[in-house]
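Reminder: ligand-aware prediction takes two inputs, not one.
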Amino acid sequence: MKPNRLIISLITVLPMVGCQSLPGQTNKNGTATTAITTQTSYEDIADAVVWQHPENESHYLIATLEGDGVAIYNQNGKEVAQTEAIEPLAADLAYGVPSTRGAYDLLAFALEEDETIGFYTFDPKKTAMMSAAGDIKLDFAPSGVCLYKNPTTQATTVTAISEDGTVVQYKLSMQGSLVKSSVTNSFGEALPVREFNVGGELSACIVDSSEGTLYIAEQNVGIWAYGADVENVKERRLVDAVAPLGHLVEIEGLDLALQENGAGVLWVADEGAGLVAYSRSDDYEYLGAIDIEGFDEVKLVTVANNALWLGNTELDEPVYELASYDDLEKAFSVSQPLDASLSPRDLTVTGVTLVRTTDETDEVDDDGDAADDSAFWLNPDSPEDSLIIATNKQGGLMAYNLDGEELQYHEAGEPNNVDVRTIQTAKGPRVIAAASNRDLNTIAFYEIENKAGVDPITPLAVTGAYVNEDEPEAQTQLNEVYGFCMGQIDSETYAYVNGKSGTLEQWHVELNGDSINAKPVRTIAVPTQPEGCVVDDKTATLYLGEEDKGIWKFDASADGSADGELIIEIDGDILVADVEGLTLVNDNNQHWLLASSQGNNTYAAYDIAADYKLVGTFAIIENGEIDGASDTDGIELVTGYISDDYPNGIFIAQDWYNIDEQYQVENQNFKLVSWADIVKALQ
Ligand code: CA
Ligand code: CA
Ligand code: CA
Ligand code: CA
Ligand code: CA
Ligand code: CA
Ligand code: CA
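Here is what comes back for the chain with calcium ion:
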C-alpha cells in the first residue's frame, strides 16, 4: 500500500498539552478496590468492549480471550455466552449502524492470525448474541480495531492498527446484516479511505464519536489524537507522552467515558503507570494515576456506564474486575466526576438535515489551507453563463463556471474574502468584485465579465488619497485585514473590511471610468476576532460574525449607529465556534440569514422576518464521486433560476477537506449545492 503523503504532510507535531504536573513522576494518587469479578477465567484476556442496554442499567462485557474465542459476561460478571468461532485480539462496538434494512449494533474484531477485521452484529435477545456479518481482509496483522459512527451523517468507519505503526481506515456500508467496504477496487477488494504510519508499535485505539477524535496509543511514545473523520483529518496532537517527557510508561489500553455537557474522561491502562485518567474537556488535563488492589499491572480498561471493567491479566487465571466510579474518584482524589453518564448510543445528532452536494469546483493551486471564500455573479442576460469568483488566500482569485471548471486563476496578493456588486453607469451595468488582501492590508478591486476571448477577472486600479504605495489597492488602517463584504445602499456602493483585532472599516466605492475611487467613511468594532460578513442591501443591515461569540447586526449606512446588537449567540449546539461565512436569502419567499457553523460542520438558517428564529441546520454530504463539505470558511448563496441544476439558486461552501472518489486528499475546493435541494430538505 502506498502511504498517503499528503495526509502525512498534514501531520504536524504540536506542542504537548495536558501535562501541567511533573512529567515523569510515577507517584500514584491512590489505590482503588474492585467489587465484582468475572466468574469464569481463561488462559489469556486481550481486550473488551461493553454493550449498554438502551433502556436500563444492565450491560454486557464482550471479552476477547486470545486463544479461547470470545466470552460475554453480564454486569454481575456471570458468563452468558462464549464462542470459539473466532480468535480476536481486540474489539470495538458501534451502536445503530444504518443498513439497507434497519440499523445494527455492530462489533468489530481484530483477527490477528487471519489478518482480517471480523464484523458481528450484536443482539442479546438472540441466544448466541453475536451473528457473523462479514469481514475485511488486511495485508497485516491488526493489533487493535476501533469503530466510528459520525453522529451527524451516520457515516461509519473502522480503523485497524498494527504493531509496526500502520493505521488503515475503511468506510463501511451495510447491506442487510452484511458489512462491506464502501470503496473497493475493480476486483471488489476493500480499499482503505485513509492510511498512514505513526512510526512505532501501536497498542490500542479508541474513537470519541462526539468530537470526531481518533486516539491511538503508540506504546512506547505516547497517546496521539487524530481527527477521526476521513474528511476532517487535520494535524495530530500529543495527549501525553511516556516518561521522562510525560506521565506514561508503557501504554496498553484506552477507553473513553462520555459525560453530559461535553465533558469526558480518557482512560489509559498503562503497564507501568497504572490506571491513568485525563479530562477530555480541558485540553487533556492529567488527572493522575492509581493502582488497583490485587493487580500487578493494569493493561486493560473498558468503560461501562456505571463502572470500569479492568483486566487483571497477570493472574494465573486472568479475570475482569469491576471498579465503581465512586471508588475511582476517591482513589484519584478528584472533585470532578469520572463516570460515563452519556452513552455513545445517545450521541445521534437529530435535527441536522443532510443535503447532497450537486457539484464541486476544480481544486485550488495550493495545498494546505488555501481556498477560503466565494462570491457569485448572476449573469442577468444568460444565467447559465454566471460566474463563481473565489479566493485562494495563498495567492489569488479564481473564476469558475457553473460546472466548477476554472476559467481563470488571477495570481495576485493574498485575497481572503471576496464579494460582488453590480454598479450602474451611463454606459450600462458593470460588475465589480473586491477582496481583502492580507498581503498588503488592502482592498483589491476587479471587474468581472463573461465574454468570449476576455479573461473574466481584470484588476481595477484604485486612485485617490488612500492608495497603497506599491499596488493600486485601497490601503486600510487595519493591522491584519481579514473578513470582507460589499453592500449597496441608496445606489451607493460600500466595501466593509474587518481585521483580526475586531475593527471594521466601511469604505465608499465609486467607479470612475476604469479606476476605483475609494475612501473610508467610518469604523465600527466587535470585541474579538470577526471574519464573515454580509450586507442586506434591502434593509441596509450589516451582519458580522465574531468567530467565538456569535453574529452581530449593525446599521450598514455610512452615517448609521456604531452600536451593534448580538442577535445570535454561539451555543455549542446549533452554532458551534467558529462562526465563519455568512450569506443571505432575500426573495419573495424567504428572508433568511445563513451561517457556517464551522465547529460542527453544518450550516444554520435563521428567519430574519421571525426575529432570527432558527429555520433549521443542514450538512452537505457526498454525492457519488463528489465528497461533502466540512470545516467550511466562506459561504455564498444567490437565489433565482440559474440553470437546470440550480433551478432556484446556488449555495456555495468552501470545503476544508476535499478528497477524490478514492478518498485521496486533493487541494481544497468549493462545493456547489442546489438551493432547491436545501429548501426542500429544511421543510
Ligand atoms: Ca477495545
Ligand atoms: Ca464572499
Ligand atoms: Ca476558523
Ligand atoms: Ca475564520
Ligand atoms: Ca476565512
Ligand atoms: Ca470534503
Ligand atoms: Ca472532491
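The pocket of calcium ion (ligand 3) is lined by residues 578, 580, 598 (CB under 6 Å). DSSP finds three helices and 52 strands in the chain. We will return to this case in the review session.
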